[in-house]
Amino acid sequence: MSILAKGKSVHVDDRYLHVELEDGRIILTPMSWYKELQEASLKQLSNYEFICLGSGVEWPELDYHLSIESMLVADIEKKAA
User: Fold this and answer.
1) 7-80: what fold?
2) Domain extent listing, the chain
3) Which of 17, 21, 25 is closest to 64 using CA atoms?
4) Which of 9, 30, 42, 81 matches a 20 to 30 Å C-alpha distance to 17?
5) Three-class secondary structure of residue 39 per DSSP
């Protein structure tokens, strides 16, 4: 599956990781899927950058990388189960 999705912004709350895409969609995935992010401080979570032409998110201080496509695929797979 190949999805062209480029990130615009990232927001984290108590329950979800929100990634707004350039096309206006917003992906929400449970923070429980990302143990490293759950354990990070708000300051660390706010220090992110888009990588790979906007198709991924990196938290340099945490050395953590996340593919936007994987967020979409994981959400589809969980709904199909």
Assistant:
1) NE0471 N-terminal domain-like (3.30.2020)
2) 7-80
3) 17
4) 81
5) coil
pLDDT single digits (tens) 4-37: 789 999 999 999 999 999 999 999 999 999 999 9
Which pTM value belongs to this model? 0.82
Which residues 6+ apart lie within 8 Å of 43 measured at CB?
A: none
Helices H, strands E: what count in the chain? 3, 6
Instruction: State both tokens at 31.
Output: 């923070």
> How many CB atoms within 10 Å of residue 39?
9
Nearest CA to 61 among 39, 37, 44, 80?
Answer: 44
